[in-house]
């Protein structure tokens, strides 16, 4: 998402408000939309009090391409975090031809490694026993 954001950002003039806003608030674009803060703060870039959700809506209004890729990114993130590989890969396959070439490269890699991703998602994470670790002398 970061490289797509930079390419879209570079379509604007470097001194434009849109360019500066997207550059300054890049973390909001990469953050999970469900975790955005509702707290209002004064934002010098916009010269008003805004929440992170309001800032994100302003950023997405600058470019339909950015908005489309952001929404797709959020859907993929949601399905991945909820361990829904069928929906995750269906979304990738449905959007492979319509997305930015950078996304296409990532999507093709995901599809190539589909079985590995699904298997990794199904294997529970096991932490080793502390008594058999390198921290033997440090644990009580």
TrEMBL record:
Transmembrane segments: none
Pfam family, one: DDE_Tnp_ISL3
Entry superkingdom: Bacteria
InterPro entries: Transpos_ISL3 (IPR047951), Transposase_DDE (IPR002560)
Domain Transposase IS204/IS1001/IS1096/IS1165 DDE: residue ranges: 2-120
PANTHER family in the cross-refs: TRANSPOSASE FOR INSERTION SEQUENCE ELEMENT IS1557 (PTHR33498:SF1)
Name of the protein this chain belongs to: Transposase
Source organism of this protein record: Streptococcus pneumoniae
Lineage start: Bacteria, Bacillati, Bacillota, Bacilli, Lactobacillales
């Amino acid at each position: 998402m970061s490289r797509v954001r930079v390419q879209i950002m570079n379509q604007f003039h470097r001194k434009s408000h849109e360019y500066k806003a997207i550059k300054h608030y890049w973390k909001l674009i990469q953050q999970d939309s469900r975790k955005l803060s509702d707290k209002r703060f004064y934002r010098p870039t916009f010269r008003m009090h805004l929440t992170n959700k309001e800032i994100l809506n302003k950023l997405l209004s600058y470019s339909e391409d950015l908005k489309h890729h952001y929404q797709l990114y959020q859907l993929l993130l949601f399905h991945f975090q909820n361990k829904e590989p069928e929906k995750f890969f269906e979304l990738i396959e449905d959007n492979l031809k319509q997305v930015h070439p950078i996304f296409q490269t990532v999507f093709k890699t995901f599809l190539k490694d589909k079985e590995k991703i699904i298997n990794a998602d199904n294997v529970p994470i096991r932490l080793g026993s502390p008594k058999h670790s390198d921290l033997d002398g440090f644990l009580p």
